[in-house]
């Protein structure tokens, strides 16, 4: 599947719950795709009780999963014919979110190289307050997406 075909598929999913993607962990998050293009993606999540830590706020690992999964989806349509995988994910946790709150995760491609892509992402509440922000580098593997069925 070419990058333009991958993008068209995801654009057809705008407004839909992302629960049938290749990412089982991402499917569990059950976000709603709001926007996507070759360099930008926005997904909405509702914090559920099972996403919270014992303090009843969004677990840092789940926030990191949201950031990593949105970056991964964005990178999937960014144009590489090869599978790319995260080599790091740097997250800053800046405020909390509670069950029932609606969050938006926005990611943008900052640099696209021949072997490495750099992304930045942010989680915001409906009020605009930042919950967490991240940066990540993804490196090209030797696996072609077409050989993986994409």
UniProtKB/TrEMBL annotation:
It comes from the Bacteria. Pfam families: 4HBT. SUPFAM superfamilies: Thioesterase/thiol ester dehydrase-isomerase. Transmembrane segments: none annotated. Residues 56-132 form the Thioesterase domain. Keywords: Hydrolase. PANTHER family: 1,4-DIHYDROXY-2-NAPHTHOYL-COA THIOESTERASE 1 (PTHR43240). Belongs to the thioesterase PaaI family. This is Thioesterase domain-containing protein. It comes from Algoriphagus confluentis.
């Amino acid at each position: 599947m070419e990058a333009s075909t991958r993008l068209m598929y995801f654009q057809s999913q705008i407004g839909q719950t992302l629960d049938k993607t290749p990412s089982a962990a991402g499917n569990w998050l059950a976000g709603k795709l709001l926007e996507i293009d070759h360099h930008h993606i926005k997904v909405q999540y509702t914090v559920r009780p099972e996403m919270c830590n014992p303090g009843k706020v969004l677990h840092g690992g789940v926030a990191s999963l949201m950031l990593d999964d949105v970056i991964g989806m964005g990178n999937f349509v960014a144009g590489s014919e090869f599978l790319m995988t995260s080599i790091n994910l740097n997250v800053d946790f800046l405020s909390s979110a509670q069950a029932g709150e609606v969050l938006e995760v926005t990611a943008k491609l900052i640099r696209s190289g021949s072997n490495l892509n750099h992304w930045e992402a942010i989680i915001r509440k409906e009020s605009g307050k930042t919950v967490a922000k991240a940066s990540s580098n993804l490196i090209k593997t030797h696996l072609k997406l077409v050989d993986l069925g994409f």
